[in-house]
Input
Amino acid sequence: MNSIIGTWKMSLEGIRNASTLLTAGLSAGDAVEKAIALVEDDPAYISVGYGGLPDRDGHVMTDAAFMDGTTLRVGGVMSVESVRNPIKLAHKLCGRQTNCLLAGDGAVQAAREFGLPMRDMRTEESIKRWQEACAASSETGKAYTGHDTVCVLALDNTNRMAAGTSTSGLFMKAPGRVGDSPLIGSGFYCDDRYGAAAATGLGEDIMRGCLSYEVVSLMRRGADPITACREALDFLVARKHALGEDSGSISLIALAPDGSFGAATTLTIFPFTTGQNNQVSLWTVGYNDPIPRKAAPDEVEVD
Ligand code: SD4
Output
């Protein structure tokens, strides 16, 4: 039995490829890395890796993380520029006992030491998008829109699990801003005894509920992955409402050690993808539509 789940429609090809490889015996960790690297390398996906969303100064600064569900070891990078595949760096750092979470220049230096490829992560389109936002934000004062993280959770044929995340974070973020994606417990968590979870949405909100740890903790106490995602989300949303805040933009995915999966969202529609023993599907879930439904790729406009 193997199973893999990824956030957003953009993960579909990576999940398809990784699912085939998992079925052929690839490890959960390598499957997570491969699925995410494919999204990072594709400039069509504007919120992850190459061609990602620039910060206020026009730099594409990425965050990524990797967790091994057997050892509970973690690797992560934050505010990293010019590393072609931040997930590969996070995966390599996960092999270390110390110095496994690196920021900025230190992370770039580690990538060089590992011999990982570097690249200018900006594309003509990302530069144009930044220039337009600079012009528009001086008129409207609204810059912070557009953000999607690719998160992947996998279970392999030997019952090992892994989790990974990668993002360029919020569009027009302040230089140095870090979201939930590289933070263990918030953006991701994985313990192959109980399951794995990951989050996408506004990192500043996701962190307030340590949502990924909360989902895994609910699974540890017996919840199935759909219920665990929903309960963790509802709890934070209720707290936000009590504080006079709106629900915000948060989506969660989870994978159980038996290969079953779940998701929940505050959005009208949140697409995610799965592969189980090489059967690949696109799903949607909505705040008012909490049971995941299968969808055809052309039905889903949200990437
Ligand atoms: C962040 N959580 O940097 C990321 C962005 C994201 O969907 O996931 N957006 O806050």
